[in-house]
Each structure stands twice: as C-alpha cells, then as structure tokens.
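Entry, Tuesday afternoon. Goal for today is a structural model of the target with magnesium ion bound, before we commit to ordering more compound. Inputs were pasted exactly as handed over by J.K., no edits. I checked the ligand SMILES twice against the vendor sheet because last time a stereocentre got dropped in transcription.
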Amino acid sequence: MQTCSLSGSTGWSIWAPKSASSAGWVGKNHYSMRRQTVARLPIGVFRQFMPLKPQNENSILSRISARFRSSRSRAAAPSVALGIGDDAALFRPKPGFETILTCDWFIEGTHFLRDRHPPDAVGWKCLARALSDIAAMGGTPRCFLLSLALPETHAGRWLNLFLGGLNRASHRFRCALAGGDTTRRREILINVAVVGEVPTGHAVLRSGAQPGDILYVSGSLGEAEFGLQLLLRSKGPTSRRSSVTRKHLYPEPRLALGQWLLKKRLVTSMMDLSDGLSSDLPRLAAASSVGARVEVAKIPRVRTSAPVLKQGRDPLQLALYGGDDYELLFTVPPGKTEFLSRTFQGAALTAIGKITGERNLLLLDEHGRPSDFVARGWDPFRKKL
Ligand SMILES: [Mg+2]
C-alpha cells in the first residue's frame, strides 16, 4: 500500500509509480477518461458528478492532499511523525499508551446508495463509524488511512463533496489523514483504517462484564434506522439539516463518553452499537461469558409522530434491530452507578437491564414476563440496503 503525504516539499511525488511496471499504478488503475464508459452512463450522473477536466491519479491525490493540508486535525495529531508524501506514514506512539487499530468498509450498495446519500455524508460517515470502534475501547483517535475506489464519473464534484465531509469529520474528531490509496472501479468502495491510543492496560474490552453489573446504553436507539427508512422513501433531495435523518447521515461517535468512562474507571465492559442491540448485546455477553436481562420498557428508543407509527414502523423494533446507531453499550458495577449522571454531553445514559451468570439473554416485558432475545440486527451477509 502506498501512502500520500501532506507534508514538506515532496508533495505527491511518492504517490506516483516508482516505475512503469509498478503493479496497480499504471494501466488498469489510471483515471483517464474512457469514451465508451462515459457513453453508457445515465445523463443525470454525467452532468452531476463528471469532472470538468480529465483526471488522473496524481491530480486526484493532489486534490486530497490540498484538502487536508491545512487540517487542524494534523496539528492535533503529533503522533503522526510523517504523513502523506512518502511510501508509508510513520506513527509515534506516546510512552505509556497502547495503539488501537481498527478498519471499516463503507461500500456502495451495502452501506450507502450513491443516488440517495449525499456525498459529504458518505465522507463524514465513513470516518465517524470507524471512530466509533475507538470510542468503544475508551480510546483517542490519532490518524487514519483512506482506501478509495471510485469511477471516473465521480472523480469530480462527487469527490470534492466527499472530501469536504471527510475533512469536517477529521477536524471534528481530531483525527488526521496520514495516507491512503486510490484506484478506479465501477462501484464506490471506501475503507478507513484508524489508529488510536489508550493508556496501557486500560482499554475497555467486551469481555469484562460480571454478573450483577448494570447494563447501560447511551443515546436513543433506532434513530439511524428510522432515518434510513425515511431517506429511502423520500422522493426529494436529502437535507443535511433534517433532524430525522441526521443520525443516519452524520453519526457522532461517543468518543468523549468512552474516554470519560475509562478515565473514571466506571465500566467493566463496553462496545459500540453498530448492528443493533439485538445483535450486539449477544456479542458482549458471549465475550464476557455471561447472560443478561433487559427490560423492554427501559430501552430508550426513537420518538416518532403518530402518522409515522401508522405506517407500521415500531420504535421498539427499530431500537432492537436497527443498525448504525453508534451508541455505547456498557456495564457498570452496582456500587458505581451513583457516579453516572443521567446524561453526558446531551446523550442520555440509560440503565436497561442487568448482567446475569446464567448465560442466556432475556427480554422482560412491562409485567416482568421473559422472552428470548432474538438477534435480528444488521448483518451484511443477510441484508442489503
Ligand atoms: Mg464495534
């Protein structure tokens, strides 16, 4: 993998192939326009996203570099000893810290639709969702690598808007672009690899839950799935300001909450909710070799208006089975719950149940009647958008 550099006078030269025979950089991966490909494109796509002038890989990399050159997130990431501009980036871990590594696919047709999802939301979300895994460990993000494949039709305005959203997320979450790779492909494929840090020995794992611990979630569950459903059903363009679709399009990883819970040593286990409570809680329980009882009435869920409810979307089902919430699920020993406030930076912290030693997961209705917990959340091998 080759990386790009934002620094120094080397510019993008390192991105160029070392020789004409360098695999993947000349020939099949180049971005020059091909007339026969363009002719097959829907005219709307052509007009909307076609580059104004022919693109090649170097010009694309120059645009990425320029977009991130003045990034404040770079200044906030002294751990990146060498960023874009050489064959690889250099990361300098802080003494006393462990490095967290995580990567996340974000793929057209599986995770987003190019004709429904705004390009800047795609840019924001591909980083935000990867950062959620750093939040789940109680860590702090430092830098990320971007792997991007896209068609030449989207190497113009679409790419500019995508980079705008990605750059905003990079600033917002103080996570610098350290490098990456690009190639041409019919579909848009994005992979983000994030490097984070956590004090040595203090990362919060999924495996620490103990019988008797209280089970908490942050925020409100099902909002992102609800926003997705509305987005798929709407006919007009998507507004960035819509509060209903914001959580689906522009999720905010709970980095500050995860770091605070770690610092105060309040939690025994933690994970982020990316696939829905019904799919993610069993993973935490299995990792900790415990069971859990969840009270249905306590699950914080999306609030919808009556007309929407009549369309058959049950807020509880959205909360249990909807993905993309990027809230935190964590366990707190009963003696420490008094140190938790009801909210953290505007997000509710809600006790929804208790960890048990019985190795089964139960949902308790408002009368205390138990039913089995059925995992029916997001699964990329089972479900598409
Ligand atoms: Mg996760």
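The chain has two domains: 13-199, 206-372.
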